[in-house]
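Before drawing any conclusions, I looked closely at one protein's amino acid sequence and its backbone structure tokens, quoted below without any editing.
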Amino acid sequence: MRKNTFVFVSILLLLLFSTQIVVSDEEYDNKNPYENLVQIELELFNFSSIYQNKSMPGFDTYNQAIKLVSEYPLTAYNLLLNCYRNTLSNSLLEKIKVLGGKKVAETFLSDNQDNLSTIVHKTNDIIPKTFASLEWLDLAKREIMDANKYLDQAMKSYNKKDYNSTVAYLIFMNSSIHKANGFAFLANERNRINIIFTNTSKLLNSVKKVASKWIDFAESTIDFYENIGYQKYSLHSRQILNQSKEYYSNKLYYIAIMNAVYAKTLVEYYTHEYLTYREYPSASSSCKTYLNWTELIMNSVYNAIDVDAPFAKSMLEQAQLHLQDELKEKDKSNASAIARLSIQESLIAGQQAQAVLDLRHAVEQDLNILYALPGASGEGTPGGLNMNQVGIVFLVIGIGMIVLGWFLRK
């Protein structure tokens, strides 16, 4: 009797174990990191109660953001950030009327310095064990870098007794800290997926090497076009490349790669596509073609459990929205300008997405990690088995042991 009970309980536990693996894996696969970022933003700041009042600054922007969440989540996120800054500015203006600019500036400065110290410690504690976590962690650190720049400007204004400018710079500092908190939270969440790197230092060194190559590649491309007489088309690209170098010097290698890709693609656009698609018919007809090309590349990103490519996703959304605007525009000159902008954004998004996938492959090769994209036989964990397959293996072994127990019983 006890042996029968043991067999029954063993089967029940094995079934529960295997079912739990399937449910937890499927539950994570259904999560959208971009929508998760919006959800984090909504939880960090109580927008819903604020915008019950239709007279609040940003009311229309907030409602537009909510409508865009499902299809254009990163655009919605940026709109919510605008709402956050608007409501913060409105609150501070009301305080200045009561307490005066100096008092508000001093209090707000102290609060921001404390919050900056907190987020620095928080990000320093995050060790990226997945590629996706590294992407969002670098974004958080970029915001911290920006927050420090705004703090320097705020201190200069405060020392000049220009309290209005002090508060203005602190609003931007506060917004950067706010964004950093959201990105850091998502970096932690994306550390929980199955595909992990056991050696983070090797991961970072691998990304660093790729970043250096991308910066050199972008610079040589810009130099080439400048040398053949396209200097006026390279100014913006050169500025972006300089930003890439700054990020590299601050060890934000992933951000450096995305900026270098942006710089290279932009100079190529201005010297090729922009000159080709000046007129409305050619720009309009080509707009959707470029967008389809980018969406095809982004499908590989969506299918990769450990890649998010937030830069490419954000730029793609802008291209898609500008295509909608172009189709609605009746003035041919305006429609042509919007179409060219969509083409530019599609090209940048596509190149950034491809660069991320290439970077992931380079990291995979450099660290000698054996796994494949979802849909292939090795989805999930280093070594080739995903969690569902692991569960099946355990179930088969367990059933085998139970059957053996029955034979021994006889």
Q: What stands out?
A: Confidence is low (pLDDT under 50) at residues 5-30, 370-399. Residues 332-366 form the longest helix (35 residues). The CA atoms of residues 96 and 104 lie 6 Å apart. The two ends are 13 Å apart (CA to CA).
